[in-house]
Amino acid sequence: MLKNYLFLWGVGLIWGSQFLFQQKAVAALPPVWVGAGRAMVGCMTLVALCYFLKLKASKRQWGKYHLIGFLEATLPFVAVAWGQQYLDTAVAAILMGTIPFFAILLSPLLVKGARITAMGLLSVAVGFAGLLVLFAPELGQGVNASFWGAMAIIGASACFALALLLLKRLDSEEPLIVARNVLLAASNQLVLLALLTAPLDSFQPTGPALGAVAYLGVMCAGVVYLLYMILIQKAGPVFASLSNYLVPLVGVILAATLNQEQLGSNTWVALAVILSAVAINQLGERKAQ
Predict the structure, then answer these.
(1) What is the C-alpha to C-alpha distance for residues 285 and 117, in angstroms, rounded to an integer?
(2) What's the rounded Cα separation, in Å, for the pair 252 and 241?
């Protein structure tokens, strides 16, 4: 049992730390290259893990992988990196905590037999009330860069939720193989996009920024998938989904401590409200089972 919790906290710490490293990366690199670097390094990490674990693909589904890669990595990696140029890391972490709410809203459209339950609807309502609390101080300031940064990250959350639902349509395949192929497809897309929009001679990378991208790729797009799959195998998907609580929580705590961000009371209240919304959704799912 203790090992399961260690794996769970490992997943939460790695995914929750991504916002700090992403902020360091976008300080010297265009967001599109942050996304491309993360996808490429993550793909290489998963290629190595699949090789050492002797995992091989059983089916070719590259059309699906390119679509899912676009939604799960290409758009979110760039959108979150771009949005973090204008937002505190704590706010970015909380916004990414909205993924389960988009999954609830989109599941009836993509998953056969899925429907929005009363508990699911309550979860979404409470979750978006949390967003109103988070941005309450800025609501009277009109549309600014922070607003568009937040919209970019919320859009990334919606894309990621859509990709998670589409993954259920893939024919049976090893989860690490799926993650590897999705990142390979996304790497192709992102490198092409980066070369077209931000030529290599248009910016000067720094050591800390490259190191941050390396961490994002190796840990946040590579090793964490292995830990997550082990957690699912050992403790089941319901227990593994508890990481939905830890990612925004860890992100906010790291922002307040390591990044020394001055967080208003509305940030902590918004975090509590959104985590409560996740809890409502999980309670509803357990009752349905």
Answers:
(1) 9
(2) 19
Domain of 226 in residue numbering reads as 2-288
Helices marked H in the chain — which ranges?
2-26, 31-52, 62-69, 75-83, 89-96, 99-110, 118-134, 145-167, 175-197, 207-215, 224-235, 237-240, 243-257, 265-288
Total count of domains within the chain: 1
Alpha-carbon dihedral 122, 127, 133, 134, rounded to 10 degrees: 180
Between CA 9 and CA 246 the distance in angstroms is 7
Q: In this predicted model, which residue has the larger pLDDT, 64 or 285? A: 64
3-state DSSP assignment of residue 57: coil
Collapsed DSSP state (helix, strand, coil) of residue 286: helix
- Residues 138-163 as b or e (16 or more Cβ within 10 Å = b): eeeeeeeebbebbebbbbbbbbbbbb
Q: Please report where in the chains the tokens 């491309």 appear, as a residue.
A: 36
The answer for residues whose C-beta is within 8 angstroms of residue 257's C-beta and 6 or more apart is none
Residue type (1 letter), 250? V
* pLDDT, tens digit (0-9, with 9 covering 90-100), for 71-89: 999 999 999 999 999 999 9
Any idea what the Cα angle at residue 171 is, between residues 170 and 172, rounded to 5°?
A: 115
Longest Cα pair distance anywhere in the chain, in angstroms? 56
Q: What is the pLDDT of residues 142-180, one digit of tens each?
A: 567 888 999 999 999 999 999 988 887 776 778 899 899
Phi-psi region of 113 (alpha: psi -120 to 50; beta: other; left: phi over 0): left
